[in-house]
Design brief:
Elements: E1 11-15, H1 21-28, E2 32-36, H2 40-43, E3 49-54, E4 58-60, H3 71-87, H4 92-103, H5 121-130, E5 135-136, E6 139-146, E7 166-170, E8 175-178
Parallel strand pairs: 1-2, 1-3
Antiparallel strand pairs: 3-4, 5-6, 6-7, 7-8
Helix pairs in contact: 1-4
C-alpha cells in the first residue's frame, strides 16, 4: 500500500483526543509520532511535520504550505490517493483494511455532557480528581495522567501547556479522556 515514512519529514502528530491508530502505524513503520494537546495551534509548532490531524476537526496534510487544518488540501490529497488506488485495482476501503491489518483496529467513541453554565465544566474534572474511578467498562484503571500537573509522554511539562484533562488507561488497553470544552454547540 503506502510507502513507509522516512526521509526528511518523518514526524506525524495527532491531537490527544484522536485515535491511537496513527501512533501504532507510525511505530510499525519506524516513524516519529507525537500526541499533543487539543487545538491546531499545537500541531502548527511541530518542526518537520508531515501529517497532523484531529478526528473531529480536520487534517494538516501539507504543513509546508498550509500550517493549519485545511479541508481543501486534504480533499485534493485524498482524490489523488483514490485515483492511485483505482489505477492499482483497489479502493480506499481496501487501503483502510490494510492499515487496520498492519496497525490494529481501533474503535473510538465520544460522550458529550452538556451543561447550561460553562463554569460547571471544571467541577466535573475536579470531582474526578477527588474520587478517581478504579474501573472503566469492567477493566481496572492501571494508570491516570493528569495534564494539569503532568506532561504528555515525551513532552516536557510547563505551565503554559497545562490543561484540565484527565486520561485513564485500563488493563484492557482502553483509554478514556475527560476534557472540558466550551467550544461545542449548545
Amino acid at each position: 500500500m503506502a510507502e513507509p515514512c522516512c526521509g526528511q519529514h518523518p514526524r506525524h502528530r495527532q491531537l490527544l483526543v484522536s485515535s491511537r491508530q496513527l501512533g501504532a502505524l507510525a511505530a510499525r513503520r519506524g516513524c516519529t509520532h507525537e500526541e499533543t494537546l487539543t487545538g491546531f495551534k499545537w500541531l502548527g509548532r511541530v518542526p518537520n511535520l508531515i501529517f497532523g490531524y484531529e478526528e473531529a476537526i480536520g487534517f494538516d496534510v501539507d504543513p509546508v504550505h498550509v500550517r493549519d487544518k485545511d479541508g481543501v488540501s486534504a480533499a485534493l490529497i485524498f482524490s489523488e490517493l483514490v485515483a492511485d488506488l483505482k489505477a492499482r485495482g483497489t479502493t480506499a476501503v481496501d487501503a483502510l483494511d490494510e492499515i487496520a491489518a498492519e496497525a490494529g483496529l481501533y474503535l473510538t467513541g465520544q460522550v458529550t455532557i452538556r451543561v447550561e453554565d460553562l463554569s460547571q465544566l471544571g467541577s466535573i474534572t475536579a470531582g474526578l480528581r477527588r474520587e478517581a474511578p478504579s474501573e472503566l467498562a469492567g477493566s481496572p484503571v492501571t494508570h491516570t495522567l493528569d495534564l494539569s500537573r503532568e506532561p504528555l509522554p515525551g513532552v516536557e511539562f510547563s505551565e503554559h501547556k497545562a490543561s484540565d484533562v484527565l486520561i485513564y488507561y485500563t488493563q484492557a488497553d482502553d483509554r478514556v479522556i475527560v476534557r472540558p470544552s466550551g467550544t461545542g454547540p449548545r
